[in-house]
Amino acid sequence: MAQRTAVRSRGLDHGLQQAWKIALTIAMVAIGLVMVFPIVWSFFTAFKPNSEAASASPTLLPQTWTLENFVEIWSAIPFAQLYGNTILFAGVVMVLSLTFDTMAGYALARFEFRGRTAAFIAIIVMLMIPYQAVIIPLYDLVHSLGLGQSMAGMIIPRTANAFGVFFMRQFFLALPRNLEEAARIDGANEWKIFTRVMLPLTTPALLTLGLFHFQFNWNDLLWPLVMSNNIAGATLPAGLALFAGQHVVEYGLLMAGSVLALIPLILFFLLIQRTFVAGIATTGLK
Amino acid sequence: MSARSTMSIHHRQARAAWMFLAPGLLLLTIFTAWPLLRTVYLSLTDYNLLTPPEWVGLDNYRELLADPQVMNAFGNTLLYAVVVTPVTIGLAMLFALALNERFFARTLVRTAVFVPFVVSLAVISIAFRFLLDPNYGLVTHWLSAIGLAPQQGALAQPHTAMAAVMLVGVWKNVGFYMVMFLAGLQSIPRELYEAAQLDGTSRLQRFRAVTLPLLSNQTMLVSILAATASFQVFDQIKVMTNGGPAMSTETLVVLVNRVGINNLEFGYGSAVSVILLVLILILSLAQYLYFGRRQVRY
């Protein structure tokens, strides 16, 4: 009797488990749809003719599909120039910052030297300072160096990043202790040890931090906005924001520009998604 | 090994270390540490880029305390942070717990929740503005179908405008914190749950006794990141409302940009920046002290 009750309650448990799983699936799929909705809507709206994009009874899907927005955006604003600026800004910053962050993180993690603790504390303090809070002297400094309204002025202040140094330090700390000892005994110099022994091991961390840097700079609004006084000198977010401020009704056109601006990052992320998530899981973010 | 050659190895190592460290540290000193000190200095001056800074002592701070637009921006920033930070963290943890279960389309949902973190907030805010447009917005259209359409659109009224930029803020970051919690959840040893299950504990008890304490490292990091991000909110406000209507969504960073950069009031703008710095300093200290003694190791 007791046994039969136990069996029945297990069956009930199983039913409950099943219902719970279905409810969870429905809820989470709904949440997923809500999360991508603005992006999906932008995508569809980019294919709407202007009469439809600015219609009093809007729909999610276009009724007539058109490519005219994707053609016109290149002449409505200096879109190619914005694109070039953004690739240059995000690309150069990513490469230089990865280089300097990795080197500094390596020094803090794998060497013992006087001043290491002080340097690490300095990094932590700078990690906490948002650039938004020091933007006035930063703007002033770049202008007094003669780099105002230039790509160099936009790029150079970003070529080292305190978070990047911290992130790479945590990664290097987690590597086995005796890695470089063997190479040192073999008489390899420190630069060779760094580039030949250590760097090949850092790929997941570099990809993760690379995406961080690339997306942060590709997406940033305030700094490019402050550093460019016209649309042509801006990056995509700043340029599109400026354009949106002037031409409120050209919805389809703006959405075509937005979609073109968002696509590289979404692709970049989808390509390295696994490594990126693993990178977050295995480094200092734990 | 003789003492002398040990010394020289140490010496060589230290030199190599500084060579690796120098470029990054130098750049950070010039473009982060120096501007930090200079923000404090400029806040004590009258400066507009054309004439050299003129020392005015605490004048900017006296002016600022009596300035309604500074108090307004301060209040808006606090309100935004107090709402958005816990909501984002709570949702992120909830999503992580749900997405740690096995179910159909889990990987797709994970990607969908994370994708907003990758896209440009400024660019997608243009879409949000259109979705909420009073005449043509799809969301306005849907809201009016169920009788909830705000007159002149959600962005034209102070409360709904603030709610809208808050929602966009949560939407943007929740996926990133979700991934961090997920990484934490996956690093908790399975045996702990199995042992707790053998003891006949409920799901909720296991969450409180195993999951929550072992996630405390992630919770600390996420709450620091989320709170700091809230204090720096700028992008969606700039694009969706530009601080309006009637300055009801103007935050400290928006104000610094308007007064400090656009109006070239460098001294006064720096004083406003110092408020932001102090807020972030207090926050970091408080969280360090609060979580520092609650960290769990296993």
TrEMBL record, chain A:
<dbReference type="InterPro" id="IPR035906">
    <property type="entry name" value="MetI-like_sf"/>
</dbReference>
<feature type="transmembrane region" description="Helical">
    <location>
        <begin position="251"/>
        <end position="272"/>
    </location>
</feature>
<protein>
    <submittedName>
        <fullName>Carbohydrate ABC transporter permease</fullName>
    </submittedName>
</protein>
<dbReference type="InterPro" id="IPR000515">
    <property type="entry name" value="MetI-like"/>
</dbReference>
<keyword id="KW-1003">Cell membrane</keyword>
<feature type="transmembrane region" description="Helical">
    <location>
        <begin position="193"/>
        <end position="216"/>
    </location>
</feature>
<feature type="transmembrane region" description="Helical">
    <location>
        <begin position="120"/>
        <end position="139"/>
    </location>
</feature>
<feature type="transmembrane region" description="Helical">
    <location>
        <begin position="151"/>
        <end position="172"/>
    </location>
</feature>
<feature type="domain" description="ABC transmembrane type-1">
    <location>
        <begin position="83"/>
        <end position="272"/>
    </location>
</feature>
<comment type="similarity">
    <text>Belongs to the binding-protein-dependent transport system permease family.</text>
</comment>
<feature type="transmembrane region" description="Helical">
    <location>
        <begin position="20"/>
        <end position="44"/>
    </location>
</feature>
<keyword id="KW-0472">Membrane</keyword>
<keyword id="KW-0812">Transmembrane</keyword>
<feature type="transmembrane region" description="Helical">
    <location>
        <begin position="222"/>
        <end position="244"/>
    </location>
</feature>
<keyword id="KW-1133">Transmembrane helix</keyword>
<keyword id="KW-0813">Transport</keyword>
<dbReference type="Pfam" id="PF00528">
    <property type="entry name" value="BPD_transp_1"/>
</dbReference>
TrEMBL record, chain B:
<dbReference type="InterPro" id="IPR035906">
    <property type="entry name" value="MetI-like_sf"/>
</dbReference>
<keyword id="KW-0812">Transmembrane</keyword>
<dbReference type="InterPro" id="IPR051393">
    <property type="entry name" value="ABC_transporter_permease"/>
</dbReference>
<feature type="domain" description="ABC transmembrane type-1">
    <location>
        <begin position="74"/>
        <end position="287"/>
    </location>
</feature>
<comment type="similarity">
    <text>Belongs to the binding-protein-dependent transport system permease family.</text>
</comment>
<feature type="transmembrane region" description="Helical">
    <location>
        <begin position="111"/>
        <end position="132"/>
    </location>
</feature>
<keyword id="KW-1003">Cell membrane</keyword>
<dbReference type="InterPro" id="IPR035277">
    <property type="entry name" value="MalF_N"/>
</dbReference>
<feature type="transmembrane region" description="Helical">
    <location>
        <begin position="266"/>
        <end position="291"/>
    </location>
</feature>
<keyword id="KW-0472">Membrane</keyword>
<feature type="transmembrane region" description="Helical">
    <location>
        <begin position="214"/>
        <end position="234"/>
    </location>
</feature>
<feature type="transmembrane region" description="Helical">
    <location>
        <begin position="174"/>
        <end position="193"/>
    </location>
</feature>
<keyword id="KW-0813">Transport</keyword>
<keyword id="KW-1133">Transmembrane helix</keyword>
<dbReference type="Pfam" id="PF00528">
    <property type="entry name" value="BPD_transp_1"/>
</dbReference>
<feature type="transmembrane region" description="Helical">
    <location>
        <begin position="78"/>
        <end position="99"/>
    </location>
</feature>
<dbReference type="InterPro" id="IPR000515">
    <property type="entry name" value="MetI-like"/>
</dbReference>
<feature type="transmembrane region" description="Helical">
    <location>
        <begin position="16"/>
        <end position="37"/>
    </location>
</feature>
<protein>
    <submittedName>
        <fullName>Sugar ABC transporter permease</fullName>
    </submittedName>
</protein>
